[in-house]
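If your schedule permits, I should be very grateful for your opinion on a structural question. I would ask you to consider whether the tokens describe a fold that such a sequence might reasonably adopt. Thank you for your consideration; the sequence and its tokens are set out here.
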Amino acid sequence: MKVGVISSRTNSARSNRSGVCENDDYLVNCFDKVFRILGVDDETPVTVISGGGRGPETLAKDYADEHDYQYTVIPPRSKVRGAMAFPERNTAIISVSDVLLVFWGGEDMYIANTLSEAMFMDKPVFVFPI
């Protein structure tokens, strides 16, 4: 199972001043709930995929390491593509994932676009507020 993790950078009650959610207990609980719902057990091969950003995306790597899951980073090509690198990277994550965990502050339009693309690609999405 390939699990994509995408997060926004908006300020909320759970994020710091730079808009990054760093509440590890909350984030681990979100991962645990989704994996239980999906029926992931010790025999399920899992690859966690993220853009490698701060907050939930960094925690995704820690979570994968702790559970002996594979971890893949699809970084944005911001030096080449500028601001368009982030939605393009999110589209790449959606394309290769079976299911998505999206951490969203509710205002980031890139994430709103990501949710639309995921629905268009018929991907299951779990959205958690940050």
